[in-house]
Amino acid sequence: MSLGWMVQRDARPDIAFERRTRLTLLLLILAANAVGTMIVFALAAWAFPLPDVDDVGTVRLVNLFALLIEVPIGLTLGTRRVLRKLSPVRRWLEADRPPTDEERRILLRAPMTIARVQALEWLTAAVFFGILNATFSSELGTRAAMTIGLGGITAAAITYLVAERQLRPVAARALDLNPLDHPVGPGITTRTLIAWAVGTGVPALGLVIVAISTLTEHDFTANELAVTVLSLAATALVCGLVVYRLTTRAFSDPVLSVRDAMAAVERGDLDAHVPVYDGSEVGLLQAGFNKMADGLRERERIRDLFGRQVGEDVAGAALEQEVELGGETRTVAILFCDVVGSTAIAADRDAHEVVEMLNRFFAVVVDVVGKHGGWVNKFEGDAALAVFGAPVEVDDPAGRALAAARELSERLAREVDGLQAAIGVSHGEVVAGNIGEERRFEYTVIGDPVNEAARLTELAKTQPGMVLAAARAVEAAAEQEARHWELGEDVKLRGRSRPTKLATPA
Asked: What is the pLDDT of residue 320?
């Protein structure tokens, strides 16, 4: 019968939310007590009719007078009891801050606290009216106590379920700031027992009482016994339906929220979040999903950063396979691109301006190389090394690298003012793999084509157009790309013993 701590006003900033929660909870608790009262009257009228007493009018008048006294007293004492138990929650709400562990525990157990106070009030009323009616007849006192007790069990159970549901928004705020790490409050088993008690236990207990009374006292006629059984069955059907509905929703709502969030993650929405408002094992399920989603977001962020550092293909292979030092032989094309006069640029311009210019330069390099199926292996100050054919094999790596070199030369001249770059392209076998040490390594390519591309870039700085390729790259390319290149003279590049036949864009 207690209206609990929500009867009082508080000073939280979100007044509309707090008032709406308080008013709705108040009405639901009143409704739960009204259901219990109706059950009492129904049982008193049909299931446990009044035994023969000398003055029925006096009995009813005394009970009505006692009811008018007991209800206000019960409401007052119950409200004070709940206010005292839940005062830490009120202080947290007024302070508008994250709750402490104790405040969170009290909040999550608030529905059971309110229900326990309700049950105590109904028990007190059962004892009081039992003793009062026993002055007229011991049998009347027993039936009054049993009737009020059965109604009280139902009212307390419904109160718990509606309070738990109505306090979900407040619980969600508390658990969002301070997630669960262990169950708090009644779990699935307890809630199931509550539903069983109201839907099955109370009516069954009533039938047992009627059966015992019939066998021992013979105070029920056949018609009265039939009416009693029908009234108890109706009570079981109606109350059982209401309580089982509330109980199943208490379980299904959190599970459905997790299912919907999982569906969102499957669609690629890693920002999916489940509000945690349950203190039982189901709440741990909700919190567990959020932790999993946080892990997925962190993993995706790391993968994104990793991919930006080493390239998406290398990052994907590293995440999906076991990392091992060493490499494999691959036939690839190498494109090397180096800024001309970078020392003078750095000396004549502000450092921030130089960085901005290099970033524009590298943006074009990454875009063009990626467009042609290559991978930028590394940035070396003011130069970039791109590989076509590793770590992912591609068709016609030489043709792709040559096409990228031609487009890169045109776009750099058009899009990056004040900067010139030389480009060299080579083709051949390299060793591609993880180079370094177990604690620190990188995926890269090692081989003669890498050195040759770097030397071609040095030479290209002195040539018109500043784009050179090894003739073997043109010879390995498909006709569609090879026709855009002209073969030239043989030169001996710095640091190489064998001559290299040059090729330039036609």
From this structure: 54
